[in-house]
Structure of Methionine aminopeptidase:
Amino acid sequence: MAAIIKTPTQIEGIKKSCRLASQTLDYITPFIKEGINTEKINQLIHQFILKNSARPAPLNYKGFPKSICTSLNNVVCHGIPSSKQILKSGDILNIDVTTILNGYYGDTSRMFTIGQVSKEAELLVKRTKKAMMMAIKKLAPNKYLNDCVGKIIEPYIKKFGYSSVRDLCGHGVGIKFHEDPSVFFYDIKQKDVLLKPGMVLTVEPMVNASPSWQIATDINDGWTIRTTDGALSAQWEHTVLITKKGHEILSKS
């Protein structure tokens, strides 16, 4: 699992695409409120990306039908936007955006809370973001990836009775949508990838609000992944560059 070391030119291109992906989420934030449907969110984001001379990477990727993923409540990831899916007070929503700008990929996602959410939902969203940031802060050259991510995230979220999804992971990104290495959010109990300057990867923990990390893919659409016990699930994502001295979060606007 040899991660790609990006060149300075590639890194500059990836930075610009990541910046656009983050700006896309900034743009859509005022629209995320009770009453809007997720297909409208998809359309607004699609047009925004095109206006900025880029393309949405998810559209038609392995048959995925939309430009973004909208994962609501107990949907872990890969939720498909729909005009029938109307946001209501109490919902939590992940919007996952990946842009292709001048051939380079930028990948990021955020959680949104709609109206008055339960304390349980609010804490899950906040703690998942904190878990992501705790892991990112550990990333640095000559450290093992699992020591920085899985070993950090899993013990933290287990304290609250949560679980890290095991059947999905983060990944290298930049030249392609998905590259090596795989980034796991639980302790895989082994030394994996030794981090080197020039690596670019996503840190995107998927955290279920129950001890069960079990998930299932919707047999009807082949994409939507939900918790099997119906528990809420949250995810945050940044694309991160390993630098000579540490790391840089690229998906910041």
Observations:
- Residues 137 and 247 are 8 Å apart (CA to CA).
- The first strand starts at residue 55 and ends at 56.
- The two ends are 31 Å apart (CA to CA).
